[in-house]
Every structure is written in C-alpha cells, then in structure tokens.
Amino acid sequence: MQTLVMLLMLVICANFLLKQSFHKMLFVCAVALIAALFVGFLWPVAIEQSKMQISGWLANPALMLDTSVILTIDVALQMWFCIASADRASGAKHKKALRLWLYLLDIFPGLLFFGVLFCLLVMVIFSLPGVSFALLGWGFAATVLVCLPLGVWVVRKILPEESIRLELLFLSNALAAVLGVVATVNGRTATAGTSEVNWLALAGMAGLQALGAMCGFFLRKIKIKHK
C-alpha cells in the first residue's frame, strides 16, 4: 500500500514538472516561490504529525476515497489541458468564454502536488531527528525553490518537442488515474457484486446506447448537410 502511494506521489511530481515545462521560466520561478513559501510556513503544522497518524490516514477508507475523488478531478483537468493544447496547435478557433477556461487550465498547477510537498516535508522532519524544525522546514523550502526550475529545465532539455511532452503528460495522467484507483480504493467497492444477470436492465442499457448512437449519427448528418 505504501509503495503504491509513494509511486503515485512520484507520478504526481513528474506530471507537475511536465505541465510547468509549457510555461516561461519566469512563471516557473513564480510557481516555485509559491511552493517554497507553502513548505516554509507549514513546518509548524508538519511537526504536529506523526508516523502513526499518517499510517492511520492511509488506512482510513473514507479519507482515501475522498482523495481518489480529488485525484480524479486533478487528472481530468490535466487531460483537458492536453486535449485543448492539441486542439489549439491544430489551428482551431475558440469562443471568448472557452479561451478564458483554457487560460485557467494553462496556469492550473495541480491539486495534489502541494499535498505531496507537505507529505515530503513530514518525511524530511522525521528522517532527521535532533535538527531544528525551522531549519529543516526552510531548508526544504530552499531545495524546492531551486529544484523545481532546475527540473523543468532538465525536462525541456531531454524532451525539447512540446508535442512529445504533451503526449507524455496525457499518458502520465492516465497512469496516475490507474494508480489512484488501486492505491486509494485498495480493493474496496461501493456495492457488493452479484453473479446474477438482470436481463431487463441489460436490455434497457443496450437500448439507451443504441438510441444515443442513432441520435448522434443523425445529428452529424444534419450538421454536415448544413455546412
């Protein structure tokens, strides 16, 4: 369980670096400064945590399911950014309201990255007992301030093509979604399974799918005819 959570945290960090690689370095440095201040000012909260408390969080089904919902929203927004960026690269024109949403998607850093930073801060504090908490907190903040722009620079050097980075960001978010389901749900389901088939419900679902397919087909025909 903890191995899956650590792997998920690694994927979230990689997604953050990939997303920031599409921005100018000044914007990246501003985001790194916000992340460093977030870490620096939260060390008094981090020292109040404990390893047993963190293990309790990981074993709490309700909390992990809520985390899965947040992860799903985060992944959906990141994938929407990838699709919108590919659409813009193809020369498509968007309405003003949609352009505003796309701008917000561009600057959206991710919901869980700051949670990962807080978790890493707690791990650093517990890994170095006897050292001043304030020194550890602000030292980790300085590390974040330096490593984030450096990591973005390395990503750009390794993958200079934006199209490849965009595709990798999309696939990496898909991996994060799969890991999130496995790590947070951990085999639990909302409803109990059954071995019996409800043929009436199955027929109704098939009928709805057929009706939707027919409506889509005719709407597309009408749209092509008008064009």
Brief account:
Helices cover 80% and strands 0% of the residues. It has 10 helices and no strands.
> Tally of extended strands?
0
Low-confidence stretches: none
Q: Quote the beta fraction.
A: under 5%
Tally of contiguous helical segments? 10
Total domain units:
2
Percentage of residues assigned to helices? over 70%
Net shape: flat
Radius of gyration: 22 Å
Main sheet makeup: none
Mean pLDDT, to the nearest integer, reads 81
Strand pairing plus helix content: what structural class? mainly alpha
SSE ordering? HHHHHHHHHH
Instruction: Give the termini distance in whole angstroms.
Output: 54 Å
Give an overview of the whole structure.
By secondary structure, the protein is mainly alpha-helical. The chain has helices spanning 2-20, 25-41, 43-46, 51-58, 61-89, 96-107, 113-127, 133-158, 162-185, 199-226. The radius of gyration is 22 Å and the shape is flat. Helix content is 80%, strand content 0%. It is built from ten helices and no strands.
Question: How would the blueprint of this fold be written?
Answer:
Layout: H1 2-20, H2 25-41, H3 43-46, H4 51-58, H5 61-89, H6 96-107, H7 113-127, H8 133-158, H9 162-185, H10 199-226
List keywords for this structure.
227 residues; mainly alpha; 80% helix; 2 domains; 0% strand
